[in-house]
Specification:
Elements (H helix, E strand, L loop, with lengths): L2 H9 L2 H26 L11 E7 L9 E5 L2 E7 L5 E5 L13 E3 L2 E3 L6 E2 L5 E3 L6 H4 L3 H7 L4 E2 L1 E4 L2 E6 L32 E9 L3 H9 L2 H6 L17 E7 L4 E7 L6 E8 L3 E5 L8 E11 L2 E10 L5 H8 L1 H19 L23 H17 L1 H4 L8 H4 L10 H29 L1
The structure holds FE2/S2 (inorganic) cluster and fe (ii) ion (FE2).
Length: 445
C-alpha cells in the first residue's frame, strides 16, 4: 500500500462504515422478515424441519448390531438394547469423544472401542474400569459412572418403522425433550388409512443428492410420464400418451395435498399426493379409508447432498392377506422400485442444493400452474428452515463426517456392483418362488 493509499485508508471512518453496514444488515433482515411474513401462506403447515422421522424399517435393525448413519450431518447410531428396544444415540462416547464405529454390543449394552466404557439401555455408564484407576474409584465407583452418560434422541418403533424425534440436540436425559408435535400426527393412520388391512413391500435407497430435491421429485407428478414412462405399469403413464388432469390442491395445518382427476370424467381419479412434514410423502388412489393402493415415502436427511428414502407399497387386492401376498410378486416389485429410483437419480444428482445456490428463485425457473404443489413445498421448506436451521447445527467441512461418508450406503442407485448383486438375488428368489409350486404340483401328480 502506498503512503497516499495508507493515509486514505486511515482517514476512513471504519466505525461509521461498520455501523452503516450493521444498520443496512438490520434493514435487510427486517425486509426479509417482512417478505417472509407476506409470502408465508396463511394456512401455514405446523411443524418445522425438526420432528419425527421414520429413519429405518424395523426389520433392517437386527439385534447385536450397531447401525451408523447421520441426520443433518450429525453422526448417530441405532441399535437394539437388551430388551430389544431401539435406541438412537449420538455417535460420540461421552468419556473422550470416540466414535462407536469399532465398538461392540455386549448383552445389549454398547461398549466404546477406546477405553471400554459400557452403557446401559438408559445411556448410563455401567463400566468405568478402564477409564479411571481402581484406587480412585474404589469407594466412589457408582458416582463416577453416573456422571458419564450417552446422548440420545427419543426413538419409537411403530408399524414396522423406527421413528426418531430429531431436534439437532441429543440429550443425556430423554425426559428433557419437549415433543412439540406428537408422533400420532405423522402416522398415516391418523389421516384415515386402515393400515392393518394391507400387505406391504418396501425398499430403502440412498441417494447422493439433496434431501429436499428428492421430496420435491416425489411431489412432482409431471416427471413420471416422461422419466418413468416406460417403467411404471400404468397405461396412462407413457411418453407417448398425453393425458389431461384436473388438479385440486389443498394446504392445511398438517399437510399439502394435490388430487389429480382425469379430465375425461368417465376415467375418474388418477392419483392423490400428500406431503406430511417434515419428510413423508403419501401417494394413493381413491379415498384414504378405502384406497386399494397406498405408497408411503420417507425421506431422511443424512448429510448435505446425501439422503435416504424408504418406500413402502401397501396393497389390498383381496380381503385375504396371504392371497394378496401371492399376487404381489414382491421381487418383481423391488425391481420396479429400483428402476424408478435409478431413473430419478439421473436427474436428482444434477440438482444439488448448496448455500451459494440457495433456493431456486422465481427468475431462474418458470413454474407452471401444475407445479403449484412444488411451489407450496418450497414455501413450507423455506419458512421451516428459517425457524429450525438444521444444517447449521452440524455444519460440514472437508474433515467432518469423513468416516460416515465412507460408510456403506443402502443400495445407492449409482453403485453398479450392488445393482447387479441385487438383480441376481431377485432372480434367484423369483426362481425359487416359481419352482417350489411347480415341484409341489409334480409331487402331487
Ligand atoms: S472415549 Fe469412550 S471410553 Fe474413553
Ligand atoms: Fe420419479
Amino acid at each position: 500500500m502506498s503512503q497516499e493509499e495508507l493515509k486514505q485508508f486511515n482517514s476512513l471512518d471504519l466505525s461509521k462504515e461498520s455501523s452503516r453496514n450493521d444498520s443496512l444488515q438490520q434493514e435487510n433482515i427486517q425486509q426479509l422478515t417482512k417478505e417472509q411474513s407476506t409470502v408465508r401462506p396463511s394456512n401455514q403447515l405446523q411443524g418445522g424441519l425438526l420432528g419425527w422421522y421414520a429413519t429405518s424399517s424395523s426389520r433392517s435393525i437386527k439385534t447385536n448390531k450397531l447401525y451408523h448413519f447421520s441426520m443433518y450431518n450429525e453422526p448417530l447410531v441405532l441399535y437394539r438394547d437388551k430388551d430389544s428396544i431401539v435406541r438412537c444415540i449420538k455417535d460420540l462416547c461421552p468419556h473422550r469423544g470416540a466414535s462407536f464405529l469399532d465398538g461392540a454390543l455386549e448383552g445389549g449394552e454398547i461398549v466404546c472401542p477406546y477405553h471400554g466404557a459400557r452403557y446401559s439401555s438408559k445411556g448410563q455408564c455401567t463400566n468405568i474400569d478402564r477409564i479411571t484407576c481402581s484406587h480412585i474409584v474404589d469407594t466412589n465407583y457408582d458416582n463416577y459412572a453416573k456422571k458419564i452418560h450417552l446422548y440420545q434422541y427419543p426413538c419409537v418403533e411403530k408399524n414396522g418403522y423406527i421413528y426418531i424425534y430429531y431436534t439437532g440436540k441429543a440429550k443425556t436425559n430423554l425426559n428433557e425433550f419437549e415433543i412439540k408435535s406428537p408422533l400420532e400426527n405423522t402416522l398415516v393412520e391418523s389421516y384415515g388409512y386402515k393400515i392393518p388391512e394391507y400387505e406391504f413391500e418396501e425398499v430403502t435407497v440412498d441417494f447422493k443428492a439433496d434431501w429436499a430435491r428428492i421430496i420435491e421429485n416425489h411431489l412432482d407428478i409431471l416427471h413420471i410420464f416422461w422419466v418413468h414412462g416406460d417403467t411404471i405399469p400404468d397405461k396412462d403413464v407413457s411418453r407417448n400418451v398425453i393425458t389431461s388432469f384436473n388438479q385440486v390442491i389443498t394446504r392445511e395445518h398438517r399437510q399439502i395435498q394435490s388430487k389429480y382427476n382425469h379430465k375425461d370424467k368417465s376415467k375418474g381419479e388418477f392419483i392423490t399426493i400428500k406431503f406430511i412434514p417434515p419428510g413423508r410423502v403419501v401417494i394413493y388412489k381413491g379415498q384414504e379409508e378405502s384406497s386399494r393402493y397406498v405408497q408411503v415415502l420417507d425421506h431422511i436427511p443424512l448429510a448435505e447432498n446425501r439422503a435416504r428414502v424408504i418406500v413402502r407399497h401397501y396393497r389390498k387386492f383381496m380381503k385375504n392377506k396371504i392371497i394378496t401376498n401371492l399376487f404381489l410378486f414382491k421381487n418383481l416389485q423391488h425391481r420396479v422400485f429400483y428402476k424408478v429410483f435409478s431413473e430419478d437419480y439421473n436427474i436428482l444428482k444434477t440438482q444439488t442444493f448448496n448455500q451459494q445456490m440457495g433456493y431456486v428463485e422465481k427468475d431462474n425457473v418458470k413454474l407452471l400452474g401444475e407445479d403449484k404443489m412444488v411451489q407450496y413445498y418450497w414455501d413450507w421448506l423455506q419458512s421451516a428452515l428459517i425457524k429450525d436451521k438444521p444444517w447449521e447445527l452440524h455444519p460440514t467441512n472437508e474433515h467432518t463426517n469423513a468416516i460416515h461418508k465412507e460408510m456403506e450406503m443402502e443400495y445407492p442407485p449409482e453403485n453398479p456392483k450392488l445393482a447387479i448383486s441385487n438383480r441376481r438375488e431377485i432372480l434367484y428368489k423369483l426362481a425359487i418362488r416359481v419352482l417350489i409350486p411347480i415341484g409341489l404340483i409334480f409331487l402331487i401328480i
